[in-house]
Design a protein that fits this description.
Rossmann fold; three-stranded mixed β-sheet; 372 residues; alpha/beta; 43% helix; globular; UDP-galactose 4-epimerase, domain 1; NAD(P)-bd_dom_sf; 16 helices
Length: 372
């Protein structure tokens, strides 16, 4: 019997990761995979095993230096890594790559690293409003090293250039949709999206939809299920040895299926507020300076929720990726997600404005790491 493919999965209980993991567990070749997840507690690991007994787990944190030997060891035993947990903290990435280098030295076969970055890297280019294509290699390379996510991207690409890892970088833009599926239903994974809640939670608190500035900024957008499908499509192409599957610098895969403006998002939120009996008017108003301080804490975070970031996802489409959800679907999906936050607020007796899985949390962490 051939040995199973050893898969290390980082981010199994995250918004994106849980959907990808579910698809892996239901894969037609699932019996040929041995999947190990990294979790922060034994309780979470046992809960995952209860969901699917074939899963293995190791306990550790990407942000605790004491756990880096664990992460390195996991890399030593991995044929394929799905990295869907963090895109900005370099130390754990270094530990993982050290382990993958040891794997390559022992086997002579370069492990596969499928890492989640994001089109947020394009905010730091000279023209974030330009229609950036992932097939434009010069444009991809022009992103400055100080950009969001870029420190980890460059380390992963460096490993690819050195020949001991094959690196593939999935770059979602604004991700929409309330995630659904067994892991979410079991309470094991985060269900809410990343960017839109940065407008939803303030809207619930002030009982009126709002935007930063004029709200005219536009982002490329994609549905969470289409992102998960792209991961599996890329994975399938890789394990099949398909031709034309770029890696390294040619392994950037921007994912998008249309664009959403902050005004459009806020408008859908405002309409939903009225329909849910929270707001009296669907009108969208600009946040005051005091509100910006209250809701976003940092000027940088608030600037992103008014920014423009365009991208063209051509590389994944060339492999056959065909997203199912368009802009109208994404806007329609904002009401169920707003209702999710409303029910949470009603249960807790307040709107939770603590940065958590929103864009503000990610950006504040990026700022703190940049200043460290």
């Amino acid at each position: 019997m051939a040995p199973k493919t050893e898969i290390l999965f980082l981010g199994a209980t995250g918004y994106l990761g849980a959907g990808v993991l579910t698809r892996l567990l239901n894969h037609r070749k699932a019996s040929e995979f041995s999947i190990t997840t990294l979790v922060r507690s034994t309780e979470k690991g046992e809960a995952l095993k209860k969901y699917n007994p074939t899963l293995k787990y190791a306990v550790g944190s990407l942000f605790d230096k004491a756990d880096y030997p664990v992460i390195e060891n996991l890399g030593k035993n991995a044929d394929i890594v799905f990295s869907i947990a963090d895109a900005d903290y370099l130390p754990w990435t270094v530990a993982l790559l050290k382990g993958l280098k040891a794997r390559f030295d022992a086997t002579g076969v370069a492990p596969i690293l499928i890492h989640t970055s994001g089109t947020g890297i394009l905010l730091f280019t000279s023209d974030p409003a330009g229609n950036h294509s992932d097939l434009d290699l010069a444009d991809v390379k022009a992103v400055p090293p100080t950009a969001l996510h870029r420190n980890v991207d460059l380390a992963a690409i460096g490993a690819d250039e050195a020949g001991y890892v094959k690196t593939y970088l999935i770059c979602p833009p604004l991700i929409a949709g309330l995630a659904s599926g067994p892991l979410y239903d079991a309470g094991l994974a985060h269900r809410n999206s990343i960017q839109a809640p940065a407008l939803m939670r303030p809207a619930l608190d002030r009982k009126q939809a709002g935007v930063v500035g004029d709200g005219k900024g536009v982002w490329a957008a994609v549905h969470v299920d289409d992102v998960a499908d792209a991961f599996i499509l890329l994975f399938n192409k890789i394990i099949a040895g398909a031709q034309g599957v770029g890696h390294g610098w040619e392994g950037y895969y921007y994912l998008e299926n249309g664009e959403l403006s902050w005004n459009a998002i806020a408008g859908a939120i405002g309409k939903a507020l009225v329909e849910l009996g929270v707001g009296k008017s669907p009108e969208v108003t600009s946040f005051t300076s005091d509100e910006i301080t209250k809701y976003y804490k940092s000027e940088f975070a608030s600037s992103v929720v008014s920014s423009t970031c365009r991208a063209k996802g051509e590389r994944a489409r060339a492999l056959g990726w065909s997203p199912k959800y368009g802009v109208a679907d994404m806007l329609a999906g904002l009401k169920p997600e707003l209702e999710f936050f409303l029910k949470k607020a009603q249960a807790e007796g307040k709107v939770d404005l603590t940065p958590n899985h929103g864009v503000d949390a990610m950006l504040q962490r990026f700022v703190s790491l940049s200043q460290a």
